[in-house]
């Protein structure tokens, strides 16, 4: 089968198209014929040797995909060959940058009609992360003001929609005027161009928009220095959810920015949650139904052929995309 493999850690140039033997589903596993694979920060970290779950090369990256069940292993009864599915597996890292991938059946979810394979490939990581953080951790509701950072990213655009659906007032922060306006199309009530409100000015703008009270929820998808600002942007009794550090920088904070306000700081990491027993399938089914009904959108900016995975990673690392980047593995 065709695949894209990493034979040594490094930059996008280490992503190499190769031919490898077809995998075979074992007990409790599903063999998925991959149609499309999402491109994620985790993939870039795997490639660079900075992902906590990655082994040593040779490795095939890719933690989410959509396609068709090609075969099921012994003991799998809830899925059958020919079903359209989406799959998520950052725990075992089976490698979805390939025509075939073997996945535990517990990480595979059947797709309802009305959800295309490209959008399904972009759904598991970003939408599920946003859903869990907004609905379960932050418990956002109609009386809340929710700040979403990097609102033009895959996670950010999903979080804006999910928070808006709860009835919350949503303030979307994005890195350019164009991205901020685009994030507003997903239901944000106010948008902030952080390139024009960098550093202290960002905090002042959030406080201005909340009449000095601060937000009830801040979803920090950036990390690094942005996390320190999140703690100053949240109000009394608020919740800050930290789910990424795409800045790859330390966060230096002053505890006086949060403990006098009785603020809760909540951490989220999807793979670690799964390791400790979280079954993503019920939440993924609910998200897929919302996409099928038109209640949620999964924005895909670019679909890149599998053999051009290097180009996809370069675009991801430049942070110039709005929404998701997807690799087309089969003809779509």
Characterise this structure.
This protein has 332 residues and is α/β, with parallel strands linked by helices. 29% of the residues lie in helices and 26% in strands. The chain contains ten helices and 15 strands. It has helices at residues 41-48, 117-121, 124-137, 154-165, 177-184, 200-209, 225-233, 270-275, 281-293, 309-318; strands at 2-6, 15-19, 29-39, 64-72, 84-88, 100-104, 108-110, 145-148, 169-174, 190-193, 215-220, 234-242, 264-267, 300-305, 324-328. Strands 3, 4, 5, 6, 7, 14 and 15 form a seven-stranded mixed sheet that branches. Strands 10-9-8-11-12-13 form a six-stranded parallel sheet, sandwiched between helices. The chain has a two-stranded antiparallel ribbon with strand order 1-2. Strand 14, helix 10 and strand 15 (324-328) form a beta-alpha-beta unit. Helix 3 (124-137) packs across helix 4. The protein starts with a strand and ends with a strand.
């Amino acid at each position: 089968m065709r695949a894209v493999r990493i034979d040594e850690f490094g930059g996008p140039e280490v992503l190499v198209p190769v031919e490898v033997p077809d995998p075979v589903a074992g007990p409790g596993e599903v063999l998925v014929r991959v149609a499309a694979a999402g491109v994620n920060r985790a993939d870039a970290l795997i490639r660079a040797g900075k992902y906590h779950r990655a082994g040593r090369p040779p490795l095939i990256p890719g933690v989410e995909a959509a396609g068709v069940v090609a075969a099921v292993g012994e003991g799998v009864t809830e899925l059958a060959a020919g079903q359209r599915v989406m799959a998520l597996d950052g725990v075992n890292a089976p490698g979805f940058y390939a025509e075939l991938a073997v996945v535990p059946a517990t990480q595979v979810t059947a797709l309802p009609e009305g959800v295309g394979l490209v959008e399904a490939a972009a759904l598991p990581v970003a939408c599920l992360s946003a859903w869990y953080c907004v609905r379960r951790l932050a418990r956002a509701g109609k009386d809340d003001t929710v700040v979403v950072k990097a609102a033009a990213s895959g996670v950010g655009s999903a979080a804006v929609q999910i928070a808006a659906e709860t009835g919350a007032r949503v303030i979307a922060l994005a890195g350019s005027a164009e991205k901020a306006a685009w994030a507003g199309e997903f239901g944000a009530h106010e948008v902030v161009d952080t390139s024009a409100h960098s550093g202290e000015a960002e905090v002042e703008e959030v406080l201005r928009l909340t009449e000095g009270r601060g937000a009830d929820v801040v979803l920090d998808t950036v990390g690094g220095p942005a996390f320190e600002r999140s703690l100053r942007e949240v109000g009394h009794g608020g919740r800050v959810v930290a789910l990424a550090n795409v800045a790859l920088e330390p966060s230096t904070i002053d505890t006086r920015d949060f403990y006098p306000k009785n603020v809760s700081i909540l951490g989220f990491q999807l793979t670690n949650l799964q390791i400790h027993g979280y079954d993503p399938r019920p939440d993924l089914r609910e998200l897929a139904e919302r996409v099928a009904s038109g209640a949620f959108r999964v924005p895909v900016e670019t679909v890149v052929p599998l053999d051009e995975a290097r180009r996809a990673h370069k675009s991801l690392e430049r942070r110039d995309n709005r929404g998701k980047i997807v690799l087309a593995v089969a003809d779509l």
